[in-house]
Amino acid sequence: MQQKTALHVHKPVGTYRYVQIILGVFFSAYLLWRLYVVLIAHPAYGPDTWLRFTIDGVVLGSVYALIAIGYTLVYGILFMINFAHGDVMMLGAFGGYFVFEALGAYKVSSSLSFLNAYPVISVILAFLAGMAVSSTAGYFLEKIAYRPLRGAPRLVPLISAVGASIFLENAAQLLFSTQRWDYTNPAVLNRGAGWNIHVGQGTVVVTYTGVLTIVVSVLIMIGLYLLVKRTRLGRAMRAVAENKSTAALMGVDVDGIISRTFIISGVLAGAAGVMWGIHLGLVYYYVGFIPGIKAFTAAVLGGIGSIPGAMLGGLFLGVVESLGPAVLGISFQLKDVIAFSILVLVLVFRPTGILGEVLSEEKV
Amino acid sequence: MPMLEVSDVHTYYGNIHALNGISISVEKGEIVTLIGGNGAGKTTTLRSIVGLLKPRQGHIVLDGEDLTQYKTHEIVNKGVAMVPEGRGIFARLTVTENLDMGAYSRKDQKGIQQDLDRVYTIFPRLKERRTQVGGTLSGGEQQMLAIGRALMTHPRLMLLDEPSMGLAPLLVESIFETIRSINKEGTTVLLVEQNALMALSIADRGYVVQTGRIVLQDKAAALRKNEMVRKAYLGEE
Q1: CATH architecture, domain B4-79+155-232
Q2: Residue B76 is nearest to which of A1, A238, A249, comparing CB atoms?
Q3: Touching B: A residues 248-277, CB under 8 Å
Q4: Cα–Cα distance between A337 and A359 in angstroms, integer?
Q5: Which position has the higher pLDDT, B129 or B228?
Q6: Given this model, what pLDDT does residue B236 score?
Q7: Contact B153/A at CB under 8 A
Q8: Quick check: B101 contacting A, CB < 8 Å?
Q9: ipTM of model
Q10: Residues A259-281: pLDDT tens digits?
């Protein structure tokens, strides 16, 4: 018989529950007190600064969201965390980097490079290249590192994923050395350039790269939503996620759908990588590591396996990480600590995440 | 030549020898039933036929073609549909989407529409609930959906695994009535049931499965009179 195991969500009982409640009240009270302090009692920053933090958070969050969707799509179908996903994103970032370099070197006139003559086309080409590189990487990653382990205990592909991640980082180090490469954007997309908005006594710069990031990210998420909800492929993906053997009984090539899921996650990760390069400006062989883990946190936060959860979790994490140090009055270098504290808190208090749900019995 | 010929099939779960040389045959247009107790190997037989399990030995031949070399989705595309045990409804897909999944690999829009109309004619309840997600249906409605979905693959051969499981007696009867009429319209049926009485009442022939082997085979009417079947599976003294 097919083994049917429900993934039982840890239900805290007795004193543990009280500890949770007490801790929860304590955290909330502390947070409210800090908000009171920084906003009313001793305003540390003006409204312009708060707005800047929030915008930064949304930009970063929309990148996290794209990567997080990749984790969630793969988890929804294979019940494994693709720990090499951050490195897939890194490869995509390099894909875009080389397109910018090549177009920057290609002169259309004596003083003007293709990059600056046709910035829109250049950016589109960079995104396409990043997506192509990442989706190819995702496709082969699944074929080589995960498919042979289909049917193995769940821990095994997880270890393989960690191995694949180390492999990709080291391969990238061989190819691109340990140097940090500057992403040369088209001139109109200079980092820091943007619209000035007056808020209170100050001004906030809404950067072009930030707006580009948010817009592209939203467009891709809408596209993904339509793909999953409206197309034949999306329906097959949902069916495979719910029950692989029944999906096969409908004539669905389950392995083919799994391949395509990795390709789609790769497309999202590639776009995220190019955004990362365009907005933040540096790419290097382990550039995918931190956003990869952050996005994993976001996916868990939103409820792993849920696509809206990954979007929400990504945005939330980006904003919290950006506002957190200011609210808590700690050093901005501790923003990573905040992100990973959230991971721990979510796993302790609500392992299913914000939009997560108990897995159905037929799953796994 | 029989439509489906299963000969000397051995299937394992890990080291457990679940099918110990099963041989059955199904003629075109028949209803054939496999009856037997829990764990006898009925479900395993069906899963082996559709390729969800790979037999280690033996042949499964559909209209002259050996199926054991194919993957499940390829076998389904050759005209074998299976209504799995426990129905396997996609709980988060709507009724329409579930039915569309049945027509997943078909391209003939006209034929799909005809089959959809046919399913809605057989099961008007499904038409009423077509926008509901599968998980919210009752057990009987889910069984209708599972059968309707299998019909959407436009099968030559339909395998049904315990269609009566968990249903009220009245519903069981109507489901079996439906199976019979589907068969009359030209679909060959291989039916696995613990409810041997119901199964034998609509089947042409039957096989009795015990511990991975066929221990008895006969016309359904003869099996109903058989001493051993009556004692073991029909609960009569």
Answers
A1: 3-Layer(aba) Sandwich (3.40)
A2: A249
A3: 248-254
A4: 30
A5: B129
A6: 64
A7: yes
A8: yes
A9: 0.90
A10: 999 999 999 999 999 999 999 98
